[in-house]
Design goal:
The chain is α/β, with parallel strands linked by helices. The longest helix has 14 residues. Helix content is 23%, strand content 20%. The chain has one domain: Protein-Tyrosine Phosphatase, Chain A (Alpha-Beta Complex).
Length: 214
């Protein structure tokens, strides 16, 4: 199944809803595999977390934490989470190439982010390694429902919102799993500057909050 690259002034997932080409039916629900979901594990009980994944028909979980462990929530540590997911029939994959904790460059072109963690990640987004990992997500999403997981509960405080920007400009809709029955379509960061699939966040644009970059 070919990966769609539809960017042409794209500003949000809603603008490509008519272009989805890989819908299929599970029971009475239409599932679009090209949609990439994101989720933050927060402090949820593991049973509640797995229920959320099942409700959203997730087949593969991509762990985009640089440090795949949690002292306060050990159920999401690398030693426990893969086993819990396997028992639920969900595949676990680490994806450190999309992990956070990136340092900003002294000559960063992304100083629209005053938060150094977001700026550092935006600098990393300019690299071939980042692009390679985003392409891997797109290839997987073309035939499998996958979810990007980090720790922070809300996407706008997490680097997965920047990964969502990169997917959106490549024509892939993204939806953030917030709570049971609630998914929020991702939209491009308002002050992002887009040239093809390259995204920068110049200083004249503004700033967003960013806190969790595990």
């Amino acid at each position: 199944m070919a990966v769609r690259r539809l960017y042409d002034g794209l500003r949000g997932a809603s603008q490509i809803s008519a272009a989805r080409q890989s819908d299929f039916v599970i029971g009475s629900c239409i599932v679009n595999t090209d949609i990439v979901c994101t989720i933050g594990h927060s402090n949820r009980p593991i049973e509640e977390f797995i229920d959320l994944l099942r409700q959203n028909e997730v087949v593969v979980l991509l762990d985009i934490r640089t440090v795949p462990k949690s002292r306060h929530n050990p159920q999401f540590g690398q030693d426990q989470l893969p086993l819990s997911l396997k028992e639920a029939g969900i595949e676990y994959r680490q994806m450190p190439g999309l992990g956070g904790l990136r340092r900003p460059k002294p000559d960063s072109v992304n100083s629209g982010w005053r938060n150094t963690s977001f700026r550092g990640y935006a600098d990393y987004m300019q690299t071939p390694d980042f692009a390679k990992n985003v392409d891997a997500v797109i290839d997987l999403a073309s035939n499998t429902r996958c979810v990007l997981m980090c720790a922070e509960s809300v996407p706008w405080r997490c680097h997965r919102s920047l990964v969502a920007d990169a997917l959106l400009v490549r024509g892939i809709p993204v939806e953030h799993i917030i709570n049971p029955g609630k998914r929020k379509p991702a939209t491009l960061t308002p002050f992002a500057k887009v040239e093809g699939t390259r995204i920068t966040y110049p200083p004249e644009g503004g700033e967003q909050i960013g806190l969790d970059f595990g």
